[in-house]
Amino acid sequence: MKKIGSLLAISLLFFLIACSQDASEEEVVENVLSSHRDVNQYAADFNIDTSDLTRTTSYNIEVNLTEEPAALHQISTMEADGEETTVETYRVDNEMYTQEADSSWVKSEAEEGEPLFTPSYRDVVSVMENVIDYAEFDSEGGTYTFSYDGFERDIYEAFEEPFNILLGGSDIADEDISLNFVFEVDKSDYYIENLEYNLSVENETGNVEINIQVNYDDINNIDDIEIPDEAIEEAS
Q1: 3-state secondary structure at position 58
Q2: What is the 3-state secondary structure (H, E, C) of 92-119?
């Protein structure tokens, strides 16, 4: 019995060690880049801060969405020059209801082909795919991380379009720009948990700083999104 117990203990030890081993960089990359195929729902928190010589603007978006069938609840807040503006939006299929600040709800129709939300989780995975070759991989800690600090125009351009970063494109000299990014990936399901991207442009015209943070939660675990009765009644 003691021998059997020892064998069972050794087997359990090897099992626990095997389960605790981290995946290789190649396995993580493969799983992350295909993860968007499984993602139909998520909550996301986007923060975008920009500053230059004249002003600082903070833009926050809290969104819950289901891609199919299309449904979204979004609260957007912009703060600039000490003034804050908030817009709340519901969308179910192509019906949209929007309320700005304390105004009444307004009903509209989403245009044909209009994306549910930009940048989507799929867009962020696409960005990661375009910059992954430049990143350093780290499996220490609670997440897998891919990070970079320096400048490559391919990285700048990969983030430019999906995050609507308008800085003049090729008119900006490479030596004027520095950037860094960090992608954090959940170790259990390989979904992207967090993204941080920082961009700095400095030349004779001044300095521009852009800081972007994206946090994902409740992937494929969102309650049904319904348009509130109050919104329907006010907009009718």
Answers
A1: strand
A2: ECCEEEEEECCCCCEEEECCCCCCCCCC
pLDDT, one tens digit per residue, over 13-26 is 444 444 457 999 99
> Beta strands 95-100 and 143-150: pairing type?
unpaired
Report the alpha-carbon distance of residue 208 to residue 94 in Å, rounded.
37
> Residue 96 phi/psi, 5° resolution?
-125, 140
Place of tokens 């992937």: 219
CA pair distance 65, 118, nearest whole angstrom: 12
- Residues for the chain: how many in total? 236
Do β-strands 136-138 and 143-150 pair in parallel, antiparallel, or remain unpaired? antiparallel
Q: What are phi and psi of 189, to 5 degrees?
A: -125, -5
- Among 219, 223, 153, smallest CA distance to 185 is for 219
Exposed, middle or buried: residue 176 (CB in 10 Å: 0-12, 13-18, 19+)? Answer: middle
Token digits of residue 75: 């609260």
* Burial class of residue 127, CB neighbours in 10 A (0-12, 13-18, 19+): buried
Q: In a 10 Å sphere around its CB, with 0-12 CB exposed, 13-18 middle and 19+ buried, how is residue 22 labelled? A: exposed
pTM assigned to the model: 0.86
pLDDT in tens, 201-230: 987 767 889 999 999 999 999 999 999 999
Own/partner pairs, 233-236, CB within 8 angstroms, 24+ separation: 234/104, 234/105, 235/97, 235/104, 235/105, 235/106, 235/107, 236/107
Question: Which region, left, alpha or beta, applies to residue 101 given φ > 0 means left and ψ of -120 to 50 means alpha?
Answer: left
